[in-house]
Each structure stands twice: as structure tokens, then as C-alpha cells.
Write a structure and sequence with these properties.
about 75% helix; mainly alpha; Tetracycline Repressor, domain 2
């Protein structure tokens, strides 16, 4: 083990999980912007971004380390560094420890409330993967952990710039969290369904029929329309919330109603569309707050 090998391993591990690491690093910045109704202080934002980047790296790579033998059975996940044995486990453990420490030290400089929420996020994802508890294998719990992490990380950023929770940030976190919970069985969990069945992981995709999951999926978009309307009526958002949010929601509804089997036949395409929509919703909340 040397510095060059360690750096190479770190870059490979980051590349393999860049999408979720970026998501959980971005959400606190989103929360900060909702609280500030504009750009947050640069130094504070950088510390939060890097802190959550390191913590997210640690929990996701820890999950990959424990799931390496299972991931070998998956055509997509089998290419990850740990599943393909391209990164040594010893170096992986070093990076998990180092990034955990760096992440907590950075968030510690921001404030107690942000630190407490970041720690809650870290612990939830740790026991999500830890085999002694393994929240991931229980029906509804897996989806609930990921959905809960949305408002938790968003509010961690919000409380970094405010002494109290912003109603706009709380509403955005709840709406996005509920949406994330309802759509998971038809999108993310569908990609892992066969692997989960083999390993006794009872996700909603494994337990529920496709018909039920599809109905939940469509209902999630309808629920968003009501959430956007309610947020405009009762909170401090402007009309850009509907101008940006409603067309995007209707467009996705039409696509998935006309192509009912899209998430089954082209799961990656369905996932990408939903992720783009998820970002669009965040932009709608942001611009409607300024």
C-alpha cells in the first residue's frame, strides 16, 4: 500500500458511486439556498459540500464492501471496483475511516444542529448496510431510510444558515422525501429486484406486484401536483413553483402513462428520467424562493 495506490483506489471508488455521492452532497446546499433565498456564504457552502461528500463516500463504499459478493451477480454492479476486485479491501477500509473522520470534522465546524443531522444520516446508512442490523433487507424499511435521508440532509444545510428550520425547506424536504419513497419500488428497486430476491432482501419491488408499484408510481406525480399547489398557497413561494414544476410533472405523467412498461423494459432510462425530474423539482423550489 502506497500513496499512489491509495489515491488511485479513492478515485476509482468515487467514480463508481459519483451519482449518489453527489446527490447527498448537493441536498444540504439546496437547503442552504432555500434558507438564504439566494446563494449561501461560499466558505460555509464549501465546508458543507465537502463534509457531506466525505460522509456519503464512506457510507456508500461501506455498503459496496459488504455487498461485493452479491454485486458480482449483477451485470451492472459487478463492474464496481470492489465487486470486480480492482480495488483492495484494505485500502477501501482506510478510505472509509479517513473520509468518515474528515466529513465529521468539516461539519463540526458548521454547527451542532447540522452535525447532529449529518450524524443521523451517517448512522442510518451505516446500519442500513451493517449485517448485524441490515435495515436494507426489511420490507418498507429500505425505502424509508433513503426517503428520510432527503429531508434530513436538506435540513442539515438549512440549519447551517438559520437558527430555525425554514418552512420552505421543510416543505420541500417532505414533498421530495415522500416522492422518493413512492417511486423507488418502480425505479431503483426494480433494477436490483432479481439480486434482492436471491439474497432474501424484501424490498417493495420484491414483495409488491408490478401493477401495484406502477399505480404507486403514477400516484406520486399526482401527489406532487397537490404538493406544489399547497406550497404556493400556504408558504412563501412565488408562481415560478407552478410554472416550472407543473409542466415537468405533467410531461413525466404522460411519458409513463403512454409507456407503462418503460421502467421494466428500460429501467436505466426510466431511472434517468426520474432523476432529471427530481433535479427539476429542486430548481422549481429554488427559483420560487428567490
Amino acid at each position: 500500500m502506497n500513496a499512489k495506490s491509495l489515491l488511485s483506489s479513492f478515485l476509482s471508488l468515487v467514480k463508481s458511486r459519483i451519482e449518489p455521492i453527489f446527490l447527498w452532497s448537493w441536498l444540504p446546499i439546496f437547503g442552504m439556498m432555500l434558507g438564504e433565498k439566494g446563494l449561501p456564504p461560499a466558505g460555509l457552502a464549501i465546508r458543507m459540500l465537502l463534509g457531506m461528500f466525505f460522509l456519503s463516500f464512506a457510507v456508500y463504499i461501506y455498503n459496496d464492501m459488504l455487498d461485493a459478493s452479491q454485486d458480482k451477480l449483477n451485470a451492472i454492479k459487478g463492474k464496481r471496483p470492489l465487486a470486480s476486485n480492482s480495488v483492495p479491501e484494505t485500502e477501501t477500509r482506510v478510505w472509509i475511516i479517513l473520509t468518515s473522520l474528515l466529513g465529521f470534522l468539516l461539519v463540526l465546524t458548521i454547527g451542532f444542529h447540522s452535525l447532529a443531522l449529518a450524524a443521523l444520516y451517517y448512522v442510518l446508512f451505516f446500519i442500513y448496510s451493517y449485517r448485524g442490523i441490515y435495515l436494507k433487507k426489511y420490507f418498507i424499511i429500505k425505502e424509508s431510510v433513503i426517503a428520510l435521508a432527503i429531508p434530513i440532509t436538506l435540513l442539515a444545510g438549512n440549519l447551517a444558515v438559520s437558527q430555525q428550520v425554514s418552512p420552505n425547506a421543510l416543505a420541500a424536504g417532505i414533498i421530495l422525501g415522500i416522492f422518493g419513497f413512492i417511486v423507488q419500488p418502480a425505479i431503483n428497486d426494480e433494477i436490483d429486484r432479481k439480486e434482492d430476491e436471491l439474497n432474501g432482501v424484501r424490498t417493495m419491488a420484491v414483495v409488491l406486484s408490478w401493477k401495484t408499484r406502477y399505480r404507486m408510481f403514477i400516484f406520486a406525480f399526482v401527489l406532487i401536483l397537490f404538493g406544489l399547489a399547497g406550497s404556493l398557497l400556504w408558504l412563501d413561494f412565488n408562481h415560478l413553483l407552478l410554472v416550472l414544476g407543473v409542466p415537468a410533472t405533467v410531461a413525466l405523467l404522460v411519458i409513463f402513462i403512454l409507456n407503462r412498461s418503460l421502467p421494466l423494459e428500460k429501467p436505466n432510462t426510466g431511472r434517468i428520467l426520474v432523476h432529471i425530474y427530481f433535479v427539476t423539482l429542486q430548481l422549481a423550489f429554488l427559483f420560487a424562493s428567490f
